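Before relying on records like the one below, remember that each one covers exactly one chain. Contacts with other chains, cofactors or solvent are not represented anywhere in the record.
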Amino acid sequence: MIDFYYSPTPNGWKVGIMLEECGLDYNTILVQLHKGEQFDPGFLAVSPAGQTPAIVDHDVDREPVPVFESAAILLYLADKTGRFAPPIASTASFPARRKLFQWLLWQASNQGPAAGQLSYFVNYAPSEDQNGRRRCANEYRRALAVLENRLRERHYILGEYSIADMACFPWVFVARRLGVDLSEYPAVQAWRGALKTRTAVRRAIDLHKDEQIVKHRQEIYEMLFDREAARLRYGLY
């Protein structure tokens, strides 16, 4: 059994999709961000940054394995199951794994942060800093253009469905909510539509759907965006 520390956010969906695609037994532990549950000592022992998602894998022949950060979790589960990623056992798979790592790291360092920062302005601070909002929107569109170029001649990011698609899909899924029309990116739009029909994807997106954090805008703003870093350091939550 895998304990899945989850909040219904795009980052949480990534791991939910992988768990569902692999048919793994998991126990969902809802972490309510607007209540500050991500700063509970028990959760910080699993995820030191106080961020969801995270997992603890009890289905091992040693001490339970905690993993935090969505990209790391996707890689861990892919290697555990031997699915949705090139295998690690063969040197012949090194070029394919290099491509996988490139796209996972691009998502974590480019697409995800651009979308997350745009989400801040759209969902939590719509009247703040229009220059900042415009810059984040442009960065998000740039990430969509990167995906558009990649998907023009292939159905999936690596050619076959993989954790790279699971990582990139959630922040594309919410494009309309972020004020971006995907008709400008037809290959991305088609890819999004195809993934959205997968049963595992729908199940992940619907998991605790009624607890999506945008329904708690004020509490989230105060808890996540109006806090001091020292509070996390000294456990003042």
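The CA atoms of residues 43 and 150 lie 37 Å apart.
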